[in-house]
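Blinded run. Sample ID left blank on purpose so nobody reads anything into the name before looking at the predicted structure. Input follows.
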Amino acid sequence: MVGLKEELLKSIWHAFTALDLDRSGKVLSHNLCTVLNVPHDPVALEEHFRDDDEGPVSNQGYMPYLNKFILEKVQGNFDKVEFNRMCWTLCAKKNLSKSPLLISDEDAFKIWVIFNFLSEDKYPLIIVPEEIEYLLKKITEAMGAGWQQEQFDHYKIALNTSREGLSAWELIDLIGSGQFSKGMDRQTVSMAINEVFNELILDVLKQGYMLKKGHKRKNWMERWFVLKPNIISYYVSEDLKEKKGDIILDGNCCVEALPDKDGKKCLFLIKCLDKTFEISASDKKKKQEWIQAIQSTVSLLRAGSAPPHKEARQKRKELRQKLQAEQEELERQMRELQAANENKQKELETVRKQLEAAAARAAEEEKKRLQTQVELQDRFSLELEREKMVRQKMEEQVAQKSSELEQYLQRVRELEEMYKQLQEALEDEKQARQDEETVRKLQARLLEEETAKRAELEKWHLQQQQTIQMTEAEKQELENQRMMKEQALQVAMEQLKQLELERKEALEQYEEVKKKLETAANNTKSWKDKVAHHEGLIRLIEPGSKNPHLITNWGPAAFTEAELEQRERSWKGKKATS
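Blinded prediction complete.
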């Protein structure tokens, strides 16, 4: 019923949009109830439009009424052609082109109905180029002409540049203009349109004259047979005015070829539950075509599938939706790539500007360095010249002084310089001693933490030994405690390893400080040797002697013998307590 409702809505949409606003809802509702065999409900209609009399511009709108009081009551027992003709009558006069066409009004009506069948399920209704190509191919094949793909491709390109598809009236103008049916007369085009209309709208899968054997008189009469998805109707003639009977098809029906008999050729048999029908085709080709068509129809009924043209339309629609989704996904990915590319370009531009700024700063710094170097060279040159001049003057002034006084003064200057350097060396040694003391304090703290961890480990070990000796009744409970203590023990072991790593780092720092101290002591000693050559001028202050360091398994210790003995007594006391 959902598909039927959508098909009805398309025709109703054309009629509704073509009517004038005033009283359009009531007029259209009355006509719809008549052609759809739905009981009239004037009270509900007046109640729905009680606010004003403007149809679609009323406060409640027309669609709620249409769905509730008309479309939901449709049972399918109505003439679709009559329904479409009523909607066509309401909208054709206003929208149909006034220019002369190569098709009749009846043909235009059939194209309009086919448009509603093939159009997209969105409003305003349009038919996309793929469905236009499908329809034009069907009409061309029905006319017996060749399909001009290149001509349609040019038309499709021109159409895609301006819009997504055609409206019903533009499609009628396209077919009526004869652009794709050149060389064909009006009657051929009209017959082709009628054939496509019968197939797509009236679900006529095949039709034609054949002979049928009567059930009572057993005589053979020519009848016009029309095959639809669930029935074969036969008439006196192809004008369909006098119907003689129906062959109801279902999944239990079958069709069989029969040998020639009684002077009749090309025979085949249609078996149904209640009756059997013998039919004679005009030739073997027609016979085979009818057998295949009926067998295909029965197979579709068994599978519960839709007619071929409806199933093909659904597949084309699903394919278009899939392609559209892929196109949208591709466009989304392209937008993301474009955005990422733009961001990357911005980042590259930022990096380029940063590099340019860094290069400019480096060039400026290099320029300043070169300028400073030139200035220093000029200054040194001036100072050298000035010094030369001063030296020459001093040589002239002190030429008369003795060489011993000159040597004495020179020695005093050297000693003063040495004294300054010695002061600097003593400052370095003092700083090195301070660094050594800091490292010793750090080593002492690490050793205390290590001792505490070892005592805690020993305590946990004793507790574990005592736990092992407990009775079997308490073993399960103690086992849980043991697992918790082992986890704590594991954590403590990891902390101990961390402390050992920190102690090693402290030892490395101590070695570095020791090397610095030795370097400072060597510098001091070298200066002391130099001073010793200058007899009795300056007396150096030497650092006091240091006690020899204790050596442990991990390197030089940071404690005296007394401190170590005190810590050992403290550890033994804690062990005895635990």
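Unblinding after everyone has recorded impressions. DSSP finds 15 helices and nine strands in the chain.
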